[in-house]
């Protein structure tokens, strides 16, 4: 009987417990407190192997479907094992009362080389309900210090020779064999069961690694381009699945790249920089022991492989007669190869993990047309100006070299390569037998739309399937986040994205096709903000800024391009060197990550010291490339008509203003006060020096003659200069807040008058053009900006599209379908600078602008027009995508807005009457603090009269 009663009691308890659990689960289900999602570290890394930061920053998002729309607290745990047992915990933040969900700094003991840790996060919402823990993520560090390396730099022994050949223009002549790509390898034996293996590797030059005959990565042109005399990036690969118990082989090919190959115009290679490989394979066995296989003087090398030549500008030469089957496999006999030359690691050159993703082929483009076939020469059209390499599958004849040439555009049916200047841009393939061959270059890249193929077996008719294009850029996501009912506007958005792809190959370059491809700092600072709206490129920029800091000279000068080669040019330029302040500031505005300001604040200060030294009474005479490539400039000068001192002084003020705000944010009160005073002094001087009482640009001014380098003049020499009035001479001070508030409308009227004189066509170059949309929207003239943007005639964005552009151009008239290429020496059809206008798609047309860095709070104030309709787009942020769309039928507005979790929006629609804002079927009256969720908006739009486009 007792057993029965006991059994009944147990059953009742179980039922009660089950009911309580169901009630609790039902409550959790109703609350939908989902786990945080999209966990990242640093500038956006997910489960990184070979990470660079010993004290990482953590970011996450609240899931859109969760009822937790705002975060009030968080807790982060970091552990040495994925079970987060008490003994494995390395750091526990505890419950932190904060709505921060991005760039949260790790506060534990600094992580070490090779260390793997696991992390997770949970959050609390408005009602103090806690979420479940997120999915577990990991971080594995690379080799952080030079003393972590046992390896030595190795290369073919011929590259250690001294050069005694006759000189050329004062430089020793170089035997091309010393720059022939190298093949390196060694065998090793693993005699125990394997737990894991990591390959740490880099090169002076570019490399491709193999283990047991297999390429271990799709990365290309690694390790990339940094100031090699100060820092070389290293890569880490998980090769656990490539090694096996028993005999193994590790191998690599090595070519010039940026380190050893020529840079810019000179065709003579730099003979003092031989190619080298550094590799360290670390194998951990299941019994806990380790084995290290490192590059040393026991490795073997040959330069008699099939890749005979390879360079960034000149292309690749491949001869199949030199192929070495299985050369990278364990079974290969390398007895005839030479022992490598080995040299120690230089302690003055830092070896540091790569802090952004390496380039790789991200898209494959098919051929869209065969333009012509004449006398064994076929011209293929990819339909898109792209950057990358071809992959060909063509019929070949033994010993008959197949030749590939590349061009951005044709002149009628003529294959045009003049704008490439000294860059050969030619790939050659010599087959060893008749039959179909497949080839894809390894150590080069080209900027092109058209490919000319000759040397194939003419018994066969060229076919579209002979050629595909492998699009190469640093491995980041490019967003498809804007569309409208206007085909040419959509094309412009696409062109900007393709220009970004083409010029973000390890560093931000000015062009990808001719003998330049440099990291010009001026181009970077005008486009950095736009690029963040178009692609996930924060890590890309943060990594490049490290190179900028390294290239800053002892006196604070920032070079014109980074990485810098001093034999190309010297000195700096205003607006170019100001990338030191502008790029970090714009990245902070978009991301909200104050670390980018901390990292670069000292560089900002030193740049301002340099600028101050090269100014007199607050007028900068630092020199500049001006409003580069302004159309209709006097005598066609590339620097434009805006006086260089006006530009230099405006940018001096801008950099000082940024430094003052940065100092405030970082808590450097005295610095902030100093820079605020300096900004006001420059502002006053700028206004009085360059403009008269009526705010006209003065016809003459007194110019201080530049001092001798490194010397101050007690009594500076002066001379009269003449200043021209340009659109940019008003755009810069309006954008940089250099006019008093009472004078701003006067300046705007003068700017508008100049725009009317040019029939609402721009007369701006690289510097002035990005200011147009900012200034015109700020002062209520977006209708004028629409007219400028939608122009069809020169100079305009649609002019290039009407002439076949699939990327943005260097010049407003780089090319014409009827006349061909502009005859200027510099003429690229893939330059991103003028693509900066795409930021207005998001800030202006859709009206999404941050009111707090990182878009934690933002305003939405669309610039409506009758000229466009059905606009939609999104802005990716630290909290998720902000989404907006609108269309107008007659005067009826239909609009949608999505505010991501942990964010807040203000809706500004001054042009709309009979406004109705709905969320979840309920009317919303307070538009100053819209909470997360989706809103439906309607009303009547009152628009200014639009000027009809020609």
TrEMBL record:
Its EC number is 3.2.1.40. It catalyses: Hydrolysis of terminal non-reducing alpha-L-rhamnose residues in alpha-L-rhamnosides. Residues 373-473 form the Alpha-L-rhamnosidase concanavalin-like domain. Residues 192-347 form the Bacterial alpha-L-rhamnosidase N-terminal domain. Residues 1-21 form the signal peptide. Keywords: Hydrolase, Plasmid, Signal. Residues 847-921 form the Alpha-L-rhamnosidase C-terminal domain. Residues 481-844 form the Alpha-L-rhamnosidase six-hairpin glycosidase domain. One of its GO terms (molecular function) is hydrolase activity. This is alpha-L-rhamnosidase.
């Amino acid at each position: 009987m007792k057993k029965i009663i006991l059994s009944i009691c147990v059953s009742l308890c179980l039922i009660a417990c089950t009911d309580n659990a169901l009630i609790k689960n039902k409550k959790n289900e109703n609350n939908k407190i989902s786990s945080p999602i999209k966990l990242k570290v640093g500038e956006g890394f997910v489960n990184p192997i070979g990470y660079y930061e010993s004290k990482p920053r953590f970011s996450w998002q609240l899931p859109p479907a969760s009822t937790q729309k705002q975060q009030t607290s968080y807790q982060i745990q970091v552990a040495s094992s994925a079970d987060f047992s008490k003994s494995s915990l390395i750091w526990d933040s505890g419950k932190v009362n904060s709505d921060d969900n991005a760039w949260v700094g790790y506060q534990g003991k600094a992580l070490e080389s090779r260390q793997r840790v696991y992390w997770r996060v949970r959050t609390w919402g408005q009602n103090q309900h806690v979420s479940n823990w997120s999915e577990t993520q990991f971080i594995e560090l690379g080799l952080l210090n030079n003393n972590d390396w046992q390896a030595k730099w190795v290369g073919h022994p011929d590259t250690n020779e001294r050069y005694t050949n006759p000189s050329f223009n004062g430089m020793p002549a170089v035997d091309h064999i010393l720059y022939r790509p190298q093949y390196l390898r060694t065998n090793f034996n693993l005699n125990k069961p394997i737990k894991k293996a990591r390959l740490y590797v880099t090169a002076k030059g570019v490399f491709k690694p193999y283990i047991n005959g297999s390429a271990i990565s799709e990365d290309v042109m690694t390790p990339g381009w940094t100031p090699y005399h100060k820092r070389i990036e290293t890569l880490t690969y998980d090769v656990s699945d490539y090694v096996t118990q028993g005999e193994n082989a590790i191998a690599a090919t090595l070519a010039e790249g940026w380190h050893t190959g020529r840079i810019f115009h000179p065709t003579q290679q730099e003979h003092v920089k031989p190619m080298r490989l550094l590799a360290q394979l670390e194998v951990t066995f299941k019994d806990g022991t380790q084995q290290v296989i490192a590059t040393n003087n026991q490795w073997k090398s040959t330069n008699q492989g099939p890749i005979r030549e390879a360079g960034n500008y000149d292309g690749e030469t491949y001869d199949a007669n030199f192929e070495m089957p299985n050369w990278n496999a364990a079974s290969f006999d390398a007895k005839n190869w030479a022992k490598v030359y080995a040299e120690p690691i230089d302690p003055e050159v830092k070896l540091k993990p790569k802090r952004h993703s390496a380039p790789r082929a991200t898209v494959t483009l098919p051929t869209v047309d065969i333009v012509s076939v004449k006398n064994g020469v076929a011209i293929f059209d990819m339909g898109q100006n792209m950057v990358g390499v071809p992959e060909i599958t063509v019929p070949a004849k033994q010993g008959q070299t197949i030749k590939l040439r590349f061009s951005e555009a044709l002149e009628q049916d003529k294959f045009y390569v003049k704008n490439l200047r000294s860059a050969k841009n030619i790939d050659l393939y010599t087959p060893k037998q008749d039959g179909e061959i497949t080839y894809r270059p390894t150590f080069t890249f080209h900027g092109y739309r058209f490919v000319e193929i000759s040397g194939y077996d003419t018994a066969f008719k060229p076919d579209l399937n002979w050629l595909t294009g492998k699009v190469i850029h640093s491995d980041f996501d490019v967003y498809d986040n804007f569309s409208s009912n206007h085909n040419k506007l959509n094309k412009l958005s696409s062109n900007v994205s393709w220009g970004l792809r083409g010029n973000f190959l390890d560093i931000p370059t000015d062009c990808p096709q001719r003998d330049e491809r440099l990291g010009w700092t001026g181009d970077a600072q005008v486009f950095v903000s736009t690029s963040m709206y178009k692609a996930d490129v924060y890590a890309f920029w943060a990594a490049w800024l490290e190179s900028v800091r390294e290239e800053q000279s002892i006196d604070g000068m920032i070079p014109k391009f980074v990485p810098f080669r001093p034999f190309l040019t010297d000195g700096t330029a205003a607006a170019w060197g100001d990338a030191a302040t502008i790029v970090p500031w714009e990245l902070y505005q978009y991301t909200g990550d104050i670390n980018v300001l901390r990292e670069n604040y000292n560089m900002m200060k030193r740049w301002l010291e340099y600028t101050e030294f090269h100014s007199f009474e607050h007028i900068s005479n630092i020199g500049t490339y001006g409003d580069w490539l302004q159309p209709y400039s006097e005598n066609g000068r590339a620097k434009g008509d805006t006086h260089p001192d006006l530009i230099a002084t405006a940018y001096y003020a801008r950099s000082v203003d940024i430094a003052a705000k940065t100092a405030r944010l970082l808590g450097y009160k005295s610095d902030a006060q100093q820079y605020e005073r300096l900004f006001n002094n420059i502002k006053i001087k700028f206004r009085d020096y360059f403009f008269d009482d009526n705010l006209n640009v003065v016809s003459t001014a007194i110019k201080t003659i530049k001092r001798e380098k490194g010397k101050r003049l007690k009594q500076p020499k002066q001379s009269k200069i003449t200043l021209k009035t340009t659109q940019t001479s008003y755009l810069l001070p309006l954008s940089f807040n250099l006019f008093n508030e009472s004078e701003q409308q006067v300046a705007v009227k003068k700017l508008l008058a100049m725009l009317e004189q040019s029939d609402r066509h721009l007369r701006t170059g690289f510097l002035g053009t990005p200011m147009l949309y900012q200034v015109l929207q700020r002062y209520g003239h977006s209708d004028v900006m629409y007219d400028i943007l939608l122009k069809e005639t020169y100079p305009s964005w649609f002019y290039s599209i009407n002439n076949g552009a699939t990327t943005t151009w260097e010049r407003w008239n780089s090319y014409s379908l009827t006349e061909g290429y502009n005859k200027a020496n510099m003429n690229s059809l893939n330059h991103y600078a003028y693509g900066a206008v795409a930021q207005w798609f998001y800030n202006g047309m859709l009206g999404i602008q941050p009111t707090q860095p990182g878009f934690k709070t933002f305003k939405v104030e669309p610039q409506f027009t009758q000229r466009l309709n059905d606009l939609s787009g999104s802005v990716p942020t630290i909290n998720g995508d902000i989404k907006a769309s609108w269309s107008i039928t007659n005067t009826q507005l239909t609009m949608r807005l999505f505010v991501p979790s942990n964010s807040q929006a203000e809706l500004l629609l001054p042009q709309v009457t009979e406004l109705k804002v709905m969320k979840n079927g309920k009317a919303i009256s307070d538009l100053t603090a819209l909470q997360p969720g989706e809103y439906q908006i309607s009303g009547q739009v009152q628009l200014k009269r639009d000027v009809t486009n020609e």
